[in-house]
Amino acid sequence: MLIGQNVHTIDEKCRIVMPSSYREELGEKIYLTKDPLENAILGYNAKEWSVMAEKISSYSLLDGSVIQRSILGNAVEASIDKQGRMVIPPSLREKVMLDREIVIVGAVKRIEIWNFKDWQALQGSVTKEQMLKAMSETGF
């Protein structure tokens, strides 16, 4: 299970160090894509990506083309090396405007990679009322 948040720095070769607690769950290959709703990168292991890609590709062309273009069209396959490093491709770095300081957030079956400042702003913008409503709607 992918949980927690980790602050990291992108090195001069555009690599991040994947938290050791995430590596076993993610495996050596990770599928990255731009979050269609937020200014972040989503990362999935091969199994979760396959399930999601299959579901997205099963949507009718009329209903699913926007989702297919957004999620599948922005997707790249990345590798985690033996030292736990992963290169974030320039196309995704630029789309979400990643600075040197980032946050990697575990979201159960995926990770989210955020610019540190964007993550802080998001965390500060959630109101108590929004949280109570979300908790009520999900039965939490």
* CATH architecture annotation: 3-Layer(aba) Sandwich
Note the main sheet: 6 strands, antiparallel
The overall number of domains is 1
Q: What is the CATH T-level topology?
A: Chemotaxis protein chec
Class of secondary structure makeup = alpha+beta
Tally of helical segments = 6
- Mean pLDDT, rounded to whole units? 93
Q: Low-confidence runs (pLDDT<50, min 5 residues)?
A: none
What's the total number of strands?
A: 8
Strand order of the largest sheet: 1-7-8-4-3-5
What would you call the shape?
Answer: globular
Order of helices and strands: EEHEEHHEEHEEHH
The first-level CATH class is given as Alpha Beta
Give the % helix: 40-55%
End-to-end distance: 18 Å
Strand content: 25-35%
Assign the CATH superfamily.
Transcriptional regulator MraZ domain
